[in-house]
Amino acid sequence: MYEYIKGTVEHTGPEFVVIDNNGIGYQILTPNPFIFSSKKGVETIIYTYQHVREDIIALYGFETIEEKLMFRKLLSVSGIGPKGALAILAFGEPGQVIRAIENEDEKFLTKFPGVGKKTARQMILDLKGKLHDVVPNVSFDLFSEELDVPAANNPRNEDELDEALLALAALGYSERELKKVGPKLEGKDWTTDQYIKQALQLLLK
Asked: Which GO terms describe its biological process (predicted)?
């Protein structure tokens, strides 16, 4: 119903971002809401997908049209719902997940919350060879480049780390998994978004 919403970023939380459009605040669930933190009060475009069930109507939003297309592809796989699709997309560029599917890397795919061997195999069966329209010309060399996390000038690093861990918990990662990666992230001077990206890199190794 809604292709995108253009408005100002008013609030970000562990699961959603609030976009103000002509005095109406839209709560939009996103893979990583904190990518919008630096845009607070700034007009931005978020590509949206409206999900309707008997018990819920929700808006899901994405920074790029490619992420939105990948979300819809993931929803077409039996066993993957909106929350699972968000957790997969939170990892980063859609091309990284596409490479795992094309390489039939079940071990990598099962590291996402809620994705077991059966669902990973279903993802490969349903999506292999069908994702070039999402990210054309993607290389199939999985993790050919390591994630680059630049330094950030942020004195509130403990608060940022706490926000990142809350966001990862909202995506479905267990307390045990978060306790394992938490100590490896302490003492860094990163933004919440950077903590999330680095934590996901560690969780999926």
From this structure: DNA recombination; DNA repair
Is the separation of the CB atoms in 87 and 29 below 8 Å? no
Q: Where are the domains of the chain?
A: 4-62, 65-127, 157-203
Q: What is this structure's pTM? A: 0.77
Torsion over CA: 167, 152, 146, 182 (sign): negative
Residue in 2, 118, 121 with CA at minimum distance from that of residue 52? 2
**For the structural domain made of 65-127, what CATH number should be given?**
1.10.150.20
Query: For 90-127, how does the pLDDT look when each residue is reduced to its tens digit (9 = 90+)?
Result: 887 677 788 889 999 999 999 999 899 999 999 999 99
- Classify domain 4-62 at the CATH class level: mainly beta
| SS3 sequence of 113-161 | CCCCHHHHHHHHHHHCCCCCCCCCCCCCCCCCCCCCCCCCCCCCHHHHH
Task: Kindly tell me the burial class for residue 146, based on how many C-beta atoms sit within 10 Å of its own C-beta (0-12, 13-18, 19 or more).
Answer: exposed
